[in-house]
Inverse folding.
């Protein structure tokens, strides 16, 4: 079934992409894979010939009854979402766009998920299959357009968040879900400690919560589900009604806490166990941070040396990502044994180092 | 083609003197149980795919992590292959031993290390039974979602290695969606932690890669899983149909109505009768097919959904629709489904369970193909499915004591899997490739994909000592299989030399 969405361009340039890659591999020329180039900040700068996926676009199959969509990597994320929306469906992991040109390939390669992540799952949880262009320029199919498939290793999910350093994603098949019948958002003024207590209590109950963010002295909650449960839970939790637009502002990092004009300190993302205590960094006050994902994702500004922030995140049971560009790796260093198997995997799949070399870590 | 390890096709296996290996390991691991006498090895000669049996050279039963580390290190140094085994309920021969290998049995790792109700996570050893986790979490109103039908027996380590599913996976995901972290011991005896209690980890998603890797990349020594709050309510509808195709159509209609059921299962007449005879679940034995549709969540929503689904089922031509009146009846409805395999085991001396997946829309068509094949091979097939996920479990009934029936059952099974691939599906949805579907992998994957799989394997096991011969066929095997198996006049892997 070709795309029925005539407004969307439908172009398959996988042969040309494959040829470019095959040549680059033969010559040992590093490539910098570029989608919409909106997440370039998320990772180390790559010195390589740009290889754009933008022309490789279009929805190759979308059957709402199957809850599966297959889409070429260069397709603008916004277009995919609009197409799903027409059918009352969506990408449950609520990916950030960070710009109008963000592509589906960039979404998968960076693996970033939005506010719904702790309840719905992450990008990788919804990836069912991929077409990968390997270093020989061959288009390989892993996973597929079925909900369950355990034949062979899960290369599809391995590529999520790999930042294009193991191959080029040409196409992905994603599980989609129907949008819920009802949605309602709340703002509850309360101190952080109280919010944390409440979130633990609510987390143990089957409530229709699909986002929970504390900042600026208040807990922001989103409820999604059937009209009955959303209304009943809304009444039970109380608070003021919150405009649903809040969640896209949060996801796209348009809130003040992210942009913070005039604050020269780098922005950091801490991914921690929900219950983890406060990071001990000299210039960081816990109440000035944004606590998303019910506490499992925290955003802060700090001038502390990168190493200190990484160490602190590891001490708390998680890891950190420096969100403001610098020359080093923004990602927490891997343990020696993990680093060894990362290097081996890279050496097996990209021995000539042509796919985004150094994007994740200098040695990859 | 025999499924037992074949050096000509699967690659050479190192030859080590049993007495020497035994002496070496006894010296290195004086405190570890190491079985070597034939009568002690016998209970480990097969997993759930009992048609294939091999006595391992030795069986190691470590009881602590240090022993696993030392064992792996020594086996690596000695060049002895290692096959890991959990509870041995696997249906694809993934834990089938090697005559020249050590079988590493993880069944003594039985401890639930911690349940943290506030963080909603459980940290457990790999030998813990799937159901034991939910039982331990129950006092806190929590449970572990993936529920394979074998959950009273199978181990969580085996679940991770197979990426096991269950009847509630449509809504709550497979094992890979519910595991937060793994402790691994590598072939070289290193300890490695994948994932963590945070929701993501830096670097490649090795956690996802290890789920479903069938003991080929490392030994799982600890598992951290996510626990979910028990739904406030769960209701199950049972719909009868006079036609399997109509039931298949109804599955799609339910999804199209915007409903994501907690479980959506289908059984055909043969399976219904077998289950009813065994469990007395109250199934309509005259129906051609039944659908079990569970709706769970908050009371008000579930009631709305029950009404919607009822309407959909009526329009789809259901001849009877029953809502389980109470918890006891709900449990009974499910019990029939969960015991479908052993139930079929009662009506036939042997049965062979397939595990193909297909896009849901292909359900009626593939069911038709299976019926035709059943006639062609003159063997009965009972159908049980995770219908919501498009995961079929055709059960082929046969009698191994009758000359040629096992071979016919296997040939029929192979054809069914090929029909799944042709419909755009996969040869396995949850039971894994193991040894059983090693040849069908050649049907599903061309050379480039297989080569990539071997490359991934080589990153963790360059010398091929972890579970050799399972999961990914050699190109030599595919060439031979292809030669026997010409499709539409086209030889798969024409580029490879034939043997
Ligand atoms: C009646 C019946 C019903 C079943 N129903 C289902 C079902 O609904 N859904 C489903 O998904 N499966 C089902 N199964 C299949 C089986 O129970 C699962 O595959 C299960 O996950 C296997 O677990 P196990 O502990 O028995 O593993 P084993 O059979 O011992 O091993 C399976 C594989 O895992 C590897 N392995 C085991 N432990 C480890 C470890 N610690 N580290 C590394 N590798 C390891 C082995 O090497 C092997 O490759 C069923 C089986 C039976 C007999």
């Amino acid at each position: 079934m070709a795309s029925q969405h005539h407004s969307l361009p439908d172009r398959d340039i996988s042969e040309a992409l494959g040829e470019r890659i095959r040549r680059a591999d033969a010559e040992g020329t590093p490539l910098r894979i570029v989608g919409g180039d909106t997440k370039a900040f998320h990772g180390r700068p790559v010195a390589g010939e740009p290889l754009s996926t933008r022309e490789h676009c279009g929805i190759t199959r979308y059957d709402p009854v199957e809850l599966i969509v297959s889409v070429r990597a260069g397709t603008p994320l916004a277009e995919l979402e609009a197409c799903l929306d027409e059918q009352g469906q969506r990408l449950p992991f609520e990916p950030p766009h960070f710009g109008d040109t963000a592509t589906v390939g960039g979404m998968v390669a960076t693996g970033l998920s939005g506010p719904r992540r702790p309840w719905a799952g992450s990008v990788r949880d919804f990836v069912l299959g991929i077409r990968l262009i390997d270093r020989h320029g061959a288009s390989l199919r892993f996973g597929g357009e079925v909900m369950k498939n355990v034949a062979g290793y899960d290369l599809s999910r391995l590529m999520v968040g790999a930042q294009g350093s193991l191959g080029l994603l040409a196409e992905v098949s994603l599980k989609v879900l129907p949008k819920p019948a009802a949605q309602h958002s709340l703002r509850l003024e309360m101190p952080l400690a109280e919010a944390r207590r409440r979130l633990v209590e609510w987390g143990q109950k089957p409530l229709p919560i699909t986002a929970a963010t504390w900042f600026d002295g208040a807990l922001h909650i989103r409820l999604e589900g059937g009209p009955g449960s959303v209304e009943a839970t809304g009444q039970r939790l109380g608070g003021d009604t919150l405009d649903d637009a809040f969640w896209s502002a949060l996801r796209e990092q348009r809130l003040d806490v992210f942009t913070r004009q005039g604050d020269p300190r780098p922005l950091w993302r801490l991914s921690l166990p929900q219950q983890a205590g406060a990071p001990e960094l000299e210039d960081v006050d816990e109440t000035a941070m944004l606590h998303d994902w019910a506490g499992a994702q925290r955003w802060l500004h700090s001038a502390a040396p990168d190493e200190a922030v990484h160490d602190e995140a590891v001490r708390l049971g998680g890891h950190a990502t420096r969100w403001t560009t610098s020359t080093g790796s923004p990602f927490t260093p891997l343990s020696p044994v993990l680093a060894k198997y990362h290097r081996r995997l890279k050496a097996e799949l990209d021995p000539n180092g042509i796919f985004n070399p150094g994007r994740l870590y200098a040695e990859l | 083609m025999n499924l037992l390890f074949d050096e000509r096709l699967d690659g050479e296996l190192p030859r080590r003197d049993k007495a020497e290996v035994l002496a070496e390991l006894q010296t290195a691991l004086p405190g570890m149980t190491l079985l070597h006498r034939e009568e002690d090895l016998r209970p480990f000669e097969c997993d759930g795919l009992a048609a294939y049996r091999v006595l391992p050279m030795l069986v190691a039963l470590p009881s602590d992590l240090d022993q696993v580390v030392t064992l792996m290190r020594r086996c690596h140094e000695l060049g002895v292959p290692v096959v890991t085994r959990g509870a041995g309920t696997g249906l694809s021969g993934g834990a089938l031993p090697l005559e020249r290998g050590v079988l590493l049995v993880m069944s003594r790792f039985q401890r639930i290390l911690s349940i943290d109700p506030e963080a909603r996570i459980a940290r457990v050893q790999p030998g813990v039974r799937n159901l034991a986790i939910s039982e331990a979490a129950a006092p806190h109103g929590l449970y572990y979602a993936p529920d394979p039908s074998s959950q009273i027996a199978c181990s969580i380590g085996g679940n991770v290695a197979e990426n096991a599913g269950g009847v509630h996976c449509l809504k709550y995901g497979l094992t890979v969606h519910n595991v937060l972290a793994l402790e691994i011991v590598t072939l070289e005896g290193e300890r490695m932690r994948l994932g963590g209690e945070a929701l993501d980890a830096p670097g490649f998603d090795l956690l996802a890669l290890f789920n479903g890797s069938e003991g080929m990349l490392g030994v799982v020594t600890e598992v951290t899983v996510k626990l979910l709050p028990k739904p406030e309510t769960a209701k199950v509808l049972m719909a009868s149909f006079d036609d399997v195709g109509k039931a298949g159509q109804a599955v799609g209609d339910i999804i199209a109505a915007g409903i994501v059921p907690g479980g959506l299962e289908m059984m055909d007449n043969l399976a219904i009768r077998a289950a009813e005879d065994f469990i007395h679940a109250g199934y309509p034995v005259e129906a051609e097919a039944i659908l079990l549709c569970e709706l769970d969540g908050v009371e008000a929503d579930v009631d709305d959904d029950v009404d919607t689904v009822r309407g959909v089922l009526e329009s789809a031509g259901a001849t009877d629709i029953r809502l389980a009146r109470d918890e006891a009846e709900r449990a009974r409805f499910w019990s029939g489904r969960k015991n479908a395999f052993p139930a079929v085991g009662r009506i036939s001396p042997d049965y062979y369970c397939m595990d193909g997946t297909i896009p849901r829309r292909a359900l009626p068509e593939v069911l038709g193909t299976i019926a035709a094949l059943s006639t062609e091979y003159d063997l009965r097939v009972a159908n049980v499915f995770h219908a919501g996920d498009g995961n079929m479990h055709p059960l082929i009934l046969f009698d191994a004591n009758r000359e040629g029936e096992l071979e016919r059952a296997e040939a029929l099974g192979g054809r069914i899997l090929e029909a799944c691939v042709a419909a755009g599906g996969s040869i396995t949805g949850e039971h894994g490739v193991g040894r059983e579907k090693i040849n069908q992998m050649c049907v599903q994957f061309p050379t480039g994909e297989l080569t990539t799989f071997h490359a991934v394997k080589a990153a963790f096991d360059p010398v091929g000592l972890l579970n050799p011969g399972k999961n990914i066929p050699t190109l030599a095997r595919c060439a031979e299989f292809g030669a026997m198996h010409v499709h539409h006049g086209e030889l798969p892997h024409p580029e490879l030399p034939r043997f």
Q: What stands out?
A: Chain B touches chain A through 96 residues (CB under 8 Å). The first strand of chain B starts at residue 33 and ends at 35.
